[in-house]
Amino acid sequence: xxxxxxxxxxxxxxxxxxxxxxxxxxxxxxxxxxxxxxxxxxxxxxxxxxxxxxxxxxxxxxxxxxxxxxxxxxxxxxxxxxxxxxxxxxxxxxxxxxxxxxxxxxxxxxxxxxxxxxxxxxxxxxxxxxxxxxxxxxxxxxxxxxxxxxxxxxxxxxxxxxxxxxxxxxxxxxxxxxxxxxxxxxxxxxxxxxxxxxxxxxxxxxxxxxxxxxxxxxxxxxxxxxxxxxxxxxxxxxxxxxxxxxxxxxxxxxxxxxxxxxxxxxxxxxxxxxxxxxxxxxxxxxxxxxxxxxxxxxxxxxxxxxxxxxxxxxxxxxxxxxxxxxxxxxxxxxxxxxxxxxxxxxxxxxxxxxxxxxxxxxxxxxxxxxxxxxxxxxxxxxxxxxxxxxxxxxxxxxxxxxxxxxxxxxxxxxxxxxxxxxxxxxxxxxxxxxxxxxxxxxxxxxxxxxxxxxxxxxxxxxxxxxxxxxxxxxxxxxxxxxxxxxxxxxxxxxxxxxxxxxxxxxxxxxxxxxxxxxxxxxxxxxxxxxxxxxxxxxxxxxxxxxxxxxxxxxxxxxxxxxxxxxxxxxxxxxxxxxxxxxxxxxxxxxxxxxxxxxxxxx
Amino acid sequence: xxxxxxxxxxxxxxxxxxxxxxxxxxxxxxxxxxxxxxxxxxxxxxxxxxxxxxxxxxxxxxxxxxxxxxxxxxxxxxxxxxxxxxxxxxxxxxxxxxxxxxxxxxxxxxxxxxxxxxxxxxxxxxxxxxxxxxxxxxxxxxxxxxxxxxxxxxxxxxxxxxxxxxxxxxxxxxxxxxxxxxxxxxxxxxxxxxxxxxxxxxxxxxxxxxxxxxxxxxxxxxxxxxxxxxxxxxxxxxxxxxxxxxxxxxxxxxxxxxxxxxxxxxxxxxxxxxxxxxxxxxxxxxxxxxxxxxxxxxxxxxxxxxxxxxxxxxxxxxxxxxxxxxxxxxxxxxxxxxxxxxxxxxxxxxxxxxxxxxxxxxxxxxxxxxxxxxxxxxxxxxxxxxxxxxxxxxxx
Lengths: 602, 396
Fold this sequence. Notes:
heterodimer, A: about 600 residues, alpha+beta, eight-stranded antiparallel sheet, 32 strands, globular, B: about 400 residues, alpha/beta, Arc Repressor Mutant, subunit A, 2 domains, nine-stranded mixed sheet, three-stranded antiparallel sheet
């Protein structure tokens, strides 16, 4: 075990693209933790998808051994945090495992909303926040101004902050020295009852779940009986150790102040919820560590195999993904139109896209995903309160006494010139303006309260496009509020296609219904008969389009005996038809479902 | 077996691809070259003759009953070359005395001399590419002739003694109207052909027309459908029976060569880009004249694709090709030949019958004109049904 005074636990807070992963890599290099041949990849973003999207989806950690200018050798535990608004809770738990945070600020762009949100999380968690000004090599860098901005906006000293370029390896040493000097050493009684904070876990098919933890009090050793205080699950510890960029390194014990891993033949990550406290069965802690929250998926969508026969494959893929992702949920769902599938819950749309992409890529599945929705709370006339996760369960309007939808507090930051655009957008999305604060002469933070539903539909993209990419956003749920909701049904050739139904705010129903009908018209191929597309609320049709009957689909010339060519053509057409789902007599390609999701593109 | 116990010969069609044209039409994606290079034409002719000789040695037991010179523009290639190739065929294969021997011609390259010569060599059918009677459109699509030349060509063809004339027409051309097309049909009727092929224009990728498709004032699919249905109607009223999606003939004048393609007959193709279906294999010659000549001269490879066709695939082709014709498909023949159930197909066809797209009774089914127009859609469904059906019995 490392002496408490020689341990520093810290994380890095940065806006997407502001160089967090690059800085992490440079720190690891400076400590010789990575061999040169590993340099090509950014070590902490281990998933292929993370690398492609340039964001960190799951938290990870690494211990760096650093010999400082004072001649002492320190164990620096870097705990990486996810970088997207969907993963706020995970960020808060990672921060709770640290005593300090390095705040990376882009020398030309300054402080952004997401950074600000995470910085406040860090400050609230009692962390020492240490700003670092990055990208000073850029011609547009304005380090002095940005430092002043940090002091003004966040209210922490930045005058002596290192000015670095993670990309070019400039001044990395000063960052390490700052960590040693300014991040407080951890405290904690290594002989007290065990309190270990779970900040992440990962399923490994050989060892079972690997729990990433920060020991707050006591000591954990192999052979010890442990208990997860929130889930109640009990296990016997098999191995403990520390994480290194090159892999895991086992050790005899982890004591208070240390960051490391525990394995205990744990079968599922459900038992090792992020934020939960591990204690000893023999000498349990009186209280769990504060801040645990059961992770609640906020966005739900139906996930179906494009080919109905692949249902079992989808189930197996979801089971495997779930092993490693406690924040995703799935439940069997059956749609008249699509057959068997799953209602899956996600933290947000990004999380949803990531899961979908992983299902399609890693498990080679073609999926049909229905429009995502939030969870509505419906009080029926008989007093029964129900949470509605899917439009399939939405009760008859006659039975509804009160309909409520979740609201969120939204913080938006952008240069002042875009305030008008942002206000228009927020208003369109039913945002209720709260206040507006000038962060500096140029930048403004706006606060709104807005239905979550309006945020999950491409709000972030819309914000980006209206602020030329300068706008940033974070949000937090604040509870349910009464709303006027309706369920919109789509009828193809007179039959309701339940998988296309969704719940929305009544005033949006007409324009949205019209748009959906148009989109479907463009995406459903003409058939041998006319296909009416209708949108209806209850029994009332509110929009209609017609797909004209297909009259010509023929290869007029089949000539010179080139039958192979004709065969190939029909083969292609056949494969296309296989990818379509047939509803009654209408064939709908899976792209049509996607098109309905992307209504605000044009 | 014949009545004297002698094995009867298998009928065979021969196709010669002649890859030369005076100029390239805007819509055409067939393989042809436009430089008139006497040396190249001669090398081509020698290569085809040599190729025929080789093939003939390997193919005893066949009786050639159709020969078809297509292109390209065989009439532009010239009578001497065609005569030489036909002679090579006769030397290497047994050619039936009643064989149908066709050549394709364009109105600008059918001199009386050429026609007389070919008639005397034994050619007995001409397929004349007229396409349209509107000179403005002919010019726009890059045809090297006007309608007046087409009228004159028909006169020359008749006076040279050809009793079997087919004309090719295209509907759906740039700027063409329904009325314009109907007028074309009526004018062409006055030329009194025995056979008419009417093709809906398909804008193929890689053609000049494809490049300017967006501003070529092309009739849309619905208009093409109207033109097609009106074609079927007009030609029927003039005594032309539709026997395939795009082909119409006076009784007895159906193209015997083309029928082989649609009914699973065997045929051998010579010349670049020519296709064959022979002895259970389907193959295609490379789409490269120089490579073809070189391959034949040096005994190298000239084939591009060779596929062995399984019974299951033949079953698919049966549907694909037979349903192009009015002969259609037949339960007994289908089940016997492919050992696959006809019933699931029949159930789907019954749906099409109710929509007016198919006609059928007692196990024989064909598509109607409206059905022909949608044949790809219908075939796609039938092929999927076929793919999913269990064989009636295992072939021993």
